[in-house]
Amino acid sequence: MMKAATTAAVFLIFLSPFAHGSRSLKTSFIIKGKVFCDTCRAGFETPASTYISGATVKVECRDRMSGDLKYTVQGKTDVTGVYNLVVKNDHKNHICESSLVSSPDSGCAEVVSGRDRSRIVLTYENGIPSSTRLANSMGFQMQTALAGCAQVMKMYRTDEDRF
Where, by residue number, does the polypeptide cross the bilayer (predicted)? Predict the structure, then answer.
């Protein structure tokens, strides 16, 4: 009887971290996103878009009630325009967003309206078991569209636009 009780106690000790879910063991998130250059000034990614290496992005978390800044981290995109920022701790009581800071490409440094930030949920209390959070792509645009963009934009026209 003693052996069975000891075995059950050992089993419960090893099982206890999983009883609350593995999320209780996690202490950080990885925010992953892309920064593009809108070469056609379309306001969104197109097949003609390129991706910006060395763009600076940041993640900020603000108190849901007061709006006070509670956490910030900044980083740069890699050669493919992808950023991976590590955010420490669970931010269930915060509103968190990734946002553009700057572009190293002076020819593509104007922020695309509405594509300068992406809200991200940074809590393990929402049913998402992964520590990786994907942010929407954010973008800068060129001052003038490249030649050939009219052809690219034709593929976005609806049948109604063609008549």
Answer: none
Nearest CA-CA partner of 112 in 147, 137, 77, 83? 137
C-alpha pair distances (Å), 6 with each of 73, 80, 123, 131: 47, 55, 36, 35
Q: For domain 25-146, is the CATH number 2.60.40.10?
A: yes
b/e per residue, 65-80, with b = 16+ CB within 10 A? eeeeebbeeebbbeee
pLDDT in tens, 116-137: 999 999 998 888 888 999 999 9
User: Tens digits of per-residue pLDDT, 72-126?
Assistant: 999 999 999 999 999 999 999 999 999 999 999 999 999 999 999 999 999 988 8
- Ordered by start, the domain boundaries in the chain are 25-146
- Give the pTM: 0.79
For residue 14, give the H/E element and its range. helix 2-19
